[in-house]
Amino acid sequence: MIRKYVYTACVSILMLLFVTRVEKTHAAITLPAIITDSMVLQQRSAAALWGWAKAGEKIEITNDWDHRKVKTIADKNGTWQVRIKTGIAGGPYTITIRGENTITIKDVYLGEVWLCSGQSNMNFPLGKGESWRTGVFNCEAEIAKANYTTIRLFTVKQEVANEPQKDVKGKWNSCTSSVAAGFSAVAYYFAREIQKETGFPIGLIHSSWGGTPAESWTRKDTLQGNHALLPILQRYEEAIKKFPADEKAYAVELEKWKRGLDSITQQGGKATPMPKKPVDPLTDSKSPSTLYNAMIHPLIPFTIKGVIWYQGESNSDRPCEYQKLFPALINSWRKEWNTDFPFYFVEIAPHYQKIPEIREAQLYTYKTVSRTGLVVITDYGDSLNIHPRNKEVVGHRLALWALAKDYGKKEIVYSGPIYRSMNIEGNKVVIHFDYADGGLVAKEGTLKEFAIAGSDKQFMKANATIEGDKVIVWSDMVKQPEAVRFGWRNFPHAELYNKAGLPASPFSTGGLMAYPCQ
């Protein structure tokens, strides 16, 4: 009996110590991974800081660029958030957060913060890695000179989630050769040029994943609220229901393959490929909203200047859907951040498998969504490699948009020719372009990528000549033309440029695609 009482007393003491420890843990202020040493906060803004503490805990934030105090109280869920006024670019500074504990964030710079997202071409690193990560051209020399103390890099760990998460895994690092080697090459080149032209500290938040479609990066209620995007969720639900049967079928095929392998091994023959294991839709990076939940939502509301984006390859078989999906993604991110930030994106590189309709969908997004910019790279594609290695030109052309639109470099030409309108004059079509000031250039002397059609919509090769900032298109076989296409192939040849040396985007007049988008 005494032993029982002693045991009960010991358990009670241990429980009391545990509860006390838990209460103390909950009382401590904690911060998300994005708010830590070596970070960059957006200059000249009301930058968001947030974290967790005990419900009702009083919190005071100070900084040493203006020494202002900001006070708040953690809500009933233990969450708190403040906005602190940032001044002009500079640093390093410290931020001190006081409650029942004190956190000092060191080595903080005020500068320009950009979110860099998309799929493998944004994920493509400066240095060599596994599989398709072949590194940029001359990567050893590029890595050796990648030392910029006031360019800060944050890579979000790749994770999936079925519900929006509170935090990510990652840390801020100064841009050194060792860090830059594994960082997004496009983002690095973008930041390097922005800093060279402005002198500002730059913070890059890199959140990308190869092989992922845009719906993975889109909030679920955005998909639910758009009738044209409901098929994405329907396919997802069907995949979830079908997965148990796929697993069983895989187990049968695997066992059959193993038996066959034993037989082939005994006979010295060549084995057939191992059956491919089905992926659980609930843990698949390609499933709707999984990456938004895990790799974007936890970053909100960290104050950013804007977004650079390189994606579209994994939606290239659904271009009409992408016409609705991509604008919805952009608008939903802006709504979540509660700001109309610039969103600059790359038109996917020419490739033998990528149909022209996907580039048309991207051009449509540029034309219909405000504060977007389109980077055309038809002159740097690789017909057999969807991951062209020259990422410097991509980062440079993204930087042109930002420098011209966001950093006051008005003299910069930031886009190649973009189709604006057409008019018909007899049997000829006159094509007008934006970004053709000073005239157009046929880099190889002649234009061969134009096609023309009449009312039958049967396109045939056309003659085309430049007249100043216009292109005149015709064919003796089409007496009453109605439509024109340019570069309308999986792998178009870049031939039409403006005087700044930037290539024209492929297009089809009036948005006329190979099949109509409803």
Task: Provide an overview of this structure.
A hairpin with a 5-residue loop joins strand 3 and strand 4. The protein starts with a helix and ends in a 10-residue tail after the last strand. Strands 1, 3, 4, 6, 7, 8, 9, 10, 11, 12 and 13 form an 11-stranded mixed sheet that branches. Residues 1-26 have low confidence and may be disordered. It folds into 4 domains: 40-109, Immunoglobulin-like; 111-219 and 289-406, Rossmann fold; 227-283; 419-511, no CATH class. It has helices spanning 2-27, 120-123, 139-144, 177-181, 185-198, 220-224, 230-267, 290-296, 319-337, 356-368, 391-406, and strands spanning 40-42, 46-52, 58-63, 69-73, 79-85, 90-98, 102-118, 148-155, 172-175, 202-208, 306-310, 343-346, 372-375, 418-425, 428-434, 440-442, 450-453, 460-461, 463-467, 470-474, 483-486, 496-498, 507-508. Helix 9 (319-337) packs parallel to helix 10. With 518 residues, the chain is an alpha/beta fold. Helices cover 30% and strands 25% of the residues. The chain is built from 11 helices and 23 strands.
